Amino acid sequence: MSKSKELFSEAKKYIPGGVNSPARAFKAVENDPLFIEQGKGAFIYDVDGKKYIDYVGSWGPMILGHNHPAVVEALQQQLMKGSSFGAPTKLETILAEMVVEGVSSVDKVRMVNSGTEATMSALRLARGYTGRTKIIKMEGCYHGHGDSLLVEAGSGITTLGIAGSAGVPAKMAEETIVVPYNDISALEEVFKEYSQDVAAVILEPVTGNMGVVAPKNGYLESLREITKKYGTLLIFDEVMTGFRLAYGGAQELYQVEPDLTTFGKIIGGGLPVGAYGGKREIMNYIAPEGPVYQAGTLSGNPLAMTAGISTLKLLKEEGVYNTLEEKGKLLEAGIQENIRKVDIPVVFSRIGSMFTLFFNGSDVTDYQSAKGSNTKAFSIYFNKMLEEGIYLPPSQFEANFISLTHSKDEIEATVEANYKALLEVKE
Ligand code: PLP
């Protein structure tokens, strides 16, 4: 028995399902999770000593690759000074200023500890600010595990084939209206009925949690117009796309400014951080300045701020996002060529350094089309890729991430493995 399997059976004795987040279990691909010993650059190493090219990147944060020397060094120095004080440090202001400077719609930002906390708090703020209760979310968008948001969510919810979650009160779910992603007329219909009741529309501007799906031309612009017309706040959940698709996130790429933005993943540089920010007038509603309460013992944690600051400093350097785009293009060209050669119904969807290979004969533009993908084929593909030393998210409905440390060699090795895995699916 492999060490990973041994550790997994031990973990299952003490941890529900043996994992601390369901997306990590390999259930959908009929396998057991690997236990990881260490990471370096584009690689992770499991406890059995096998090396993998990693496209999970801790589900998004590791854009610099694992264990970046500058981040490690900064963390070591901070650790010598202490790991948590529960009192302000200048590190919080430095990271907040970097976010405000980098993201044009953000005047002020509040640090929290996860993406879930960021979206939950942003919704409370939107409700407090507008005095309205309903929210609109898009089918297949995942915003963490807050009650209001666990309705028709993607990610692990789709992977495990459950509609929502037990334990979410019906009254809570009733306040959430779900419309298809990329469908403006469905949204307009909802606004006709609830014009004065909707506090916020929240979405992933580019989705990652049903797999990578781009907004249709003009979709984000129309969302901006409609929400403005009805006095509803527009929230971009950029937990995944923030500092990933561009330094200023999807809103920079598509030139559409939301009222509030949520962050996580990359701004914590691999440590637990989330944040939400937006227009000054709205952010001033948060305690202690305003009436919307939100707090955290470890919020703005010095180690987490340090990892975030050193990560963003490197991402600010000239040419970083062009480099990521070049890497994405190279991988895409190789995989598209494989798809043609093997002649198999697969759609390769990529924006910058995020991508998904949908085992699907038709274009994927929303949750329904994503769900039409062949998960059995994905499972075969995933397991063959793993055998070939390529570590992918263990679900069809997730985004893969390229880091700055994925070199031409790693990308070529991935394309080679992809060819073999596609052939195996076809058999
Ligand atoms: N929002 C988006 C878009 C996400 O992708 C995620 C996590 O994958 C979250 C929110 C929740 O973040 P966390 O897992 O840090 O709570």
From TrEMBL:
Location in the cell: Cytoplasm
Can you cite an annotated GO cellular component? cytoplasm
Main location class: cytoplasm
Q: Keyword check for Acetylation, yes or no.
A: no
Q: Name one Pfam family in it.
A: Aminotran_3
Please give the residue positions where the record annotates the modification N6-(pyridoxal phosphate)lysine: 265
Query: Which cofactor does the UniProt annotation name?
Result: pyridoxal 5'-phosphate
Its keywords, alphabetically, are: Cytoplasm, Isomerase, Porphyrin biosynthesis, Pyridoxal phosphate
The question of whether Cytoplasm is a record keyword is answered with yes
From the UniProt record, which GO molecular function terms apply?
glutamate-1-semialdehyde 2,1-aminomutase activity; pyridoxal phosphate binding; transaminase activity
Name the EC number(s): 5.4.3.8
Q: Which GO BP terms sit in this record?
A: protoporphyrinogen IX biosynthetic process
User: Pathway it acts in?
Assistant: Porphyrin-containing compound metabolism; protoporphyrin-IX biosynthesis; 5-aminolevulinate from L-glutamyl-tRNA(Glu): step 2/2
Q: Which reaction equations make up its catalytic activity?
A: (S)-4-amino-5-oxopentanoate = 5-aminolevulinate
Could you say which protein family the record assigns here? Belongs to the class-III pyridoxal-phosphate-dependent aminotransferase family. HemL subfamily.
Known partners and oligomeric status: Homodimer.
Q: What is the name attached to this protein's record?
A: Glutamate-1-semialdehyde 2,1-aminomutase
Q: Which organism is this entry from?
A: Orenia metallireducens
